[in-house]
């Protein structure tokens, strides 16, 4: 059983989260707290396996509480907050939170696939506590091949659980004059996309913006796929597909990767970062078959080694790299 501490200033929200977690049978809520200070004290007392944390609370807010908890405990923290604190929720990942979800997800009408997805993510995140101490001893498996110089026309990136924090490190290492547009599918909570763009802009010299219909991607910019619709590329620029979910995701990286591979061929680089599931794996195969260059994050630096592993297992990944090496490699590969 995963011992969980729920921290939120709303009695109703704490009750909803407790019912949600314990309905699975794999979680037990061992404590509740109505503010960050109480959450910090109960975390030290109870030593839980997982903590859920609101952002805006009296006495001590969630951001400060996360920082204080991380000083004394390795317990993973997941933020569960509202749309109006989206930017702060992403900032929490830099402070030490592992993931975040909108409170709007936790309703009686929750999609059953979404329910399973969140519960499985929380279980894997809780498991990072036991493996974190061993990360330094993991070997990096980097596979290289001779890649001829070619004009790179775009970079496409897929990320999910653990992605926001990983993206701050990756994007901080890219210059403002990066010579190709970067297009990102981050599996965001519905409605959090604008806050994500505003937040990520503070961590990179690139201009970060939401992709728009008919927009032609330009170098030095990072385009983010909006939530709740698939982003694809064609000869007219960006386009949206309002079809069904793919890999239980919308937007899905696979659709972006495939459309970009068809359009750009060997002028494309794809990157699959940390995340649950297999989104980006099939797209990676398309990029490889089209002559593009394919990268994936290694297990040691991935919060959840699901998407990168699925991509690697296709046999179509050219390079497996630790997170801190990906930006530098992108700079090298885009030099003509």
UniProtKB/TrEMBL annotation:
Residues annotated as catalytic: 160, 187, 279
Domain CheB-type methylesterase: 155-336
PTM annotation (4-aspartylphosphate): residues: 54
Location(s), subcellular: Cytoplasm
Domains: entry comment: Contains a C-terminal catalytic domain, and an N-terminal region which modulates catalytic activity.
Family annotation (PANTHER family): PROTEIN-GLUTAMATE METHYLESTERASE/PROTEIN-GLUTAMINE GLUTAMINASE, PROTEIN-GLUTAMATE METHYLESTERASE_PROTEIN-GLUTAMINE GLUTAMINASE
Annotated family: Belongs to the CheB family.
Descriptive protein name: Protein-glutamate methylesterase/protein-glutamine glutaminase
């Amino acid at each position: 059983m995963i011992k969980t501490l729920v921290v939120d200033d709303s009695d109703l929200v704490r009750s909803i989260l407790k019912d949600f977690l314990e309905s699975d049978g794999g979680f037990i809520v061992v404590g509740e707290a109505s503010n960050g200070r109480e959450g910090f004290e109960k975390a030290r007392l109870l030593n839980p396996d997982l903590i859920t944390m609101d952002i805006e609370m009296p006495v001590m807010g969630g951001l400060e509480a996360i920082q204080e908890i991380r000083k004394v405990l390795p317990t993973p923290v997941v933020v569960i907050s509202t749309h109006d604190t989206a930017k702060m929720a992403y900032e929490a990942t830099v402070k030490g939170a592992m993931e975040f979800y909108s409170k709007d997800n936790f309703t009686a009408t929750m999609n059953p696939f979404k329910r399973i997805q969140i519960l499985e993510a929380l279980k894997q995140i809780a498991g990072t506590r036991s493996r974190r101490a061993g990360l330094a001893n993991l070997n990096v498996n980097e596979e290289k091949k001779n890649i001829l110089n070619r004009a790179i026309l775009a970079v496409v990136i897929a990320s999910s659980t653990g992605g926001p924090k990983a993206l701050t490190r990756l994007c901080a290492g890219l210059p403002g004059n990066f010579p190709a547009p970067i297009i990102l599918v981050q599996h965001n909570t519905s409605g959090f996309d604008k806050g994500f763009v505003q937040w990520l802009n503070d961590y990179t010299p690139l201009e970060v913006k939401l992709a728009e219909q008919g927009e032609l991607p330009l170098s030095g910019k990072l385009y983010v796929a909006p939530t709740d619709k698939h982003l694809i590329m064609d000869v007219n620029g960006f386009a949206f597909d309002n079809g069904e979910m793919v890999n239980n995701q919308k937007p899905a990286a696979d659709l972006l990767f495939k459309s970009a591979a068809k359009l750009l061929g060997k002028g494309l680089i794809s990157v699959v970062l940390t995340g649950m599931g297999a989104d980006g794996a099939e797209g990676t195969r398309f990029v490889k078959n089209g002559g593009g260059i394919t990268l994936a994050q290694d297990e040691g630096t991935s919060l959840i080694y699901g998407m990168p592993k699925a991509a690697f297992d296709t046999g179509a990944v050219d390079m497996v790299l630790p997170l801190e090496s990906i930006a530098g490699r992108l700079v090298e590969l885009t030099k003509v």
